[in-house]
Amino acid sequence: MTQKSIEGYGYCALCGSNDVNTASPLLTAAGFDGNGNYCLCRCLQCGVVQTYPKPSTDLLAQAYNSDYYGSSDSKFNRLPELWSRFIGRRRARWLLRQHGGPDKPLRILDIGCGRGVLLNAFAAAGHTIMGTEREGSPFSGLPHILCCDLADLEAQTGSFDIIVLWHVLEHLNNPKETLAKARDLLDNSGSLFISVPNFGSNQSRLFNNHWFHLDLPRHLFHFEYTSLELLLRTVNMKITRQNTCVFDQNTYGFIQSILNYLPGIKNNHLYSLLKKDMNVTSLFLSVAYLPILFPLMILAVTEHYISGLFRQGACLTIQVTINNHD
Ligand SMILES: [Zn+2]
């Protein structure tokens, strides 16, 4: 696809405006696996950045294949999987503290919960959990995970103390509808936690179309604080806290984005390697990365802390409550 073939104005899937200038994309980039060519364009009405052209149902089905999800037991090979579970437990504790350090069991809903790493960490801390996933996801049948539409949870209206959308909103066809349903499911004094790649971050600007967290074509929307705040206002919710320091995602995003510049190596090759069952070839390739990984890690951690100080980190996490006063 060339820029010319989508010349003209597109439709904004968030605010319904026809004011998306697809003839002047902010950037063009290949898909996550190096295939395809996509444009990122900003809606001149609501400011949200979107992926064009919208991927077809068939393309999305390929993008959300078993490689993407992993199995119910694991997504990565042994070491990164252990790291991912460690991070899940830390994240659950952090989210509970942000909510106010609960002294009683809470009801927690994780929308787009994947294989349930975060949910299991909440359950281990004594809380009541429920997760949702796309219909047809490989996690149907796992305890506490429903593959259903949020509308099917109507009976649970107002019953959740915490709802989590962790790197999910940017994948959805209609984020506004999901946020409105999440608001209905949330208790009046509950917390909704949202984390998304921060399109307004230093990494996004620095790495442009090589940025790991673009994840095209799965990411249909690319949020910044301002577009997210505006969107939440339309569903009568408000941001009470923001943070751009998501250590694991920020540092890995930095490292993989730099690796994406290396000639002769497939886009996101290291990430694919971390997800494969380890064999002699993948072990050899992983070891070959080590000499470059150490200096990159030092740079990545430095960037994480400096950008985080100025709220310019690669992932934006917000705590949101129902706006009971306006
Ligand atoms: Zn718009």
Please give a structural write-up.
The chain is an alpha/beta fold and 326 residues long. It folds into 2 domains: 3-63, no CATH class; 81-252 and 304-322, Vaccinia Virus protein VP39 (Rossmann fold). Helices cover 36% and strands 20% of the residues. It is built from 10 helices and 13 strands. It has helices spanning 57-63, 66-69, 78-99, 117-124, 175-185, 202-207, 225-234, 247-259, 269-275, 280-309, and strands at 9-10, 20-21, 27-29, 38-42, 49-52, 107-111, 128-133, 145-147, 160-166, 186-197, 221-222, 237-243, 315-322. The strands form 3 sheets. It has a 7-stranded mixed beta sheet, with helices on both faces. Strand 9 (160-166), helix 5 and strand 10 (186-197) form a beta-alpha-beta unit. Helix 8 packs across helix 10. The radius of gyration is 19 Å and the shape is globular. Mean pLDDT is 88; it is low at 1-6. Zinc ion is lined by residues 12, 14-15, 17, 43, 45-46, 48. Residues 12, 14-15, 17, 43, 45-46, 48 line the site of zinc ion.
